[in-house]
Amino acid sequence: MNLHTPINDNAIPAQRQPSVAPRSILELEADYWRARAEWLPLNAHWKPLHDVAMKAAEAAIKALGGTSRVQTGDQQWAIASAIYDANGATAAGRAESQVEVRMDNALGQLVDTPACSLLELAAKARLALLDLHGIEDAGAVDCAEADWPEHVMTKLVLDIERLAGRRA
Known about the structure:
Layout: H1 25-65, H2 73-86, H3 89-112, H4 118-133, H5 148-163
């Protein structure tokens, strides 16, 4: 090492880099689907709690607003937070969010990893269809009834999956 070379504190010398191999797209896809399977019931539990809490908070703020007891945004936030906590939406939302972070991390890593095979490209395309259009199974889409962007993306995913051997 040259003593006159500036040191980059953010760089990790090669000998200290972790020896963990990069995760494959198929491993990341499996991680994503496992996290999604865990997230779906958590989201289904949280969503109605959230909706009820928000409606109750809006009603309470509206009712109290006319009495001038609730004047500031901080006071309104305190009311909404108390109702949200009381009905369990805060705890349910926290659990749902923790799993959603794992799902998003797997998806982000998968998107940033270059595909090295048609099977990996099919995995990326399938998750793009889900993320962009909310379509979990391209084979279940009636392309004649789909909007044009969904039609195009679904046909693309079906072709890639067929070439990769995931569809007949």
